[in-house]
Amino acid sequence: MTGIGAIFRKELADHFSSYRFIILFALIAMVSLITTYMVGIGLREELGGFAKPKFVFLMLFTSTGPLFSLVQFVAFFGPLIGLVLGFDSINRERSTGTLSKLASQPIYRDSIINGKFLSGVATVAIMLLSILLVVSGLGLTLIGVVPGVEEVWRIFIYLIISIFYISFWLGVSILFSILFRGIATSALATLAVWIFFSFFVSMGASVVANAMVPLDQATTQDPEMIMGHVRIKRNVSLLSPMQIYNDSTAIIIDPMRKTTGSLVLMGAIERLSSERFKRPLALSQSIYVVLPHLITLIAITFICFGVSYYVFMRQEIRPI
């Protein structure tokens, strides 16, 4: 693909030199550091004078601070990184007339869309890696515990999942940038999709579950009705990439979690037999539990970019 390297370097330079990126990176880094600092101070006070439990370093990412944990913050606000980086990637070039000039150069047309997407992914990866390294360094200073090999691997896998998650939203924003010529229109469309999947899918899941399996005073004593209600609500909520990401990262970053389910009903015999499962899951077992979620997240990322690629290659580029 002739020219993809030039497009990649040009877009990467534009991202890192834009005030938009600097403000966004500074805001996310500031919130992440404040959250980690308050969580680290709390852990140091709670564990002072006691033997440090296993996987205490991962608590920096999973423990809830004043409002949310670091994992929850990335799950909710991480999509904004991809949306901000890509909502005007194509229509800005089209409105300024540089897209037709770029297409007239001796480069393949698909190098334009590929270079823009890859540069956005590289920017997301650099941003997340920088934040995780700074957060980890701050955590080392606050709690004074060096992470083990398995903890490092879990944080690395969490980083990879987060990159794919934000890259999905980057693909969504690039798609709307191709479909709509107006920059404001594509920005509003991307925000509407983010709001829909972040808020309305979870609310819709509750509405659908209440409509199909309503719970009242009579049915709350029936375990099958409760599990049916929870199962429907969960299946509908999995339509949101945020829920898929939350389930994936919850198991990877928290070894004590054994399942992605939010409700598990057990009888007396089950509770007795579950005592042997109090030990944390091995990394390989955690990956096995969330493997369907990981495959789904990677698949929708490639599908979204594939649709953007197809639409861009079919569009006509005219000089303004």
Q: What features would you highlight for this structure?
A:
globular; 320 residues; 13 helices; single chain; mainly alpha
Shape descriptor: globular
Strand coverage percent: under 5%
Span between termini: 26 Å
Please give the domain count: 1
Query: Based on DSSP secondary structure assignment, what is the total number of beta strands?
Result: 0
User: If you average the pLDDT, what whole number results?
Assistant: 81
Sheet of most strands? none
Evaluate the radius of gyration: 22 Å
- Helix share bin: over 70%
Q: Regions with pLDDT < 50 over 5+ consecutive residues?
A: 263-277
Number of helices: 13
User: Based on helices, strands and strand pairing, what is the structural class?
Assistant: mainly alpha
* Topology order in helix (H) and strand (E) letters: HHHHHHHHHHHHH
Structure description:
This protein is 74% helix and 0% strand. It is built from 13 helices and no strands. The protein has helices spanning 4-17, 19-46, 59-62, 70-86, 91-96, 98-103, 110-143, 149-179, 183-212, 223-237, 241-253, 268-273, 283-314. Helix 2 packs parallel to helix 7 (110-143) and helix 4 (70-86) packs antiparallel against helix 7 (110-143).
Topology:
Layout: H1 4-17, H2 19-46, H3 59-62, H4 70-86, H5 91-96, H6 98-103, H7 110-143, H8 149-179, H9 183-212, H10 223-237, H11 241-253, H12 268-273, H13 283-314
Summarize the structure in short.
This protein is mostly helical and 320 residues long. The protein has helices spanning 4-17, 19-46, 59-62, 70-86, 91-96, 98-103, 110-143, 149-179, 183-212, 223-237, 241-253, 268-273, 283-314. The two termini are 26 Å apart.
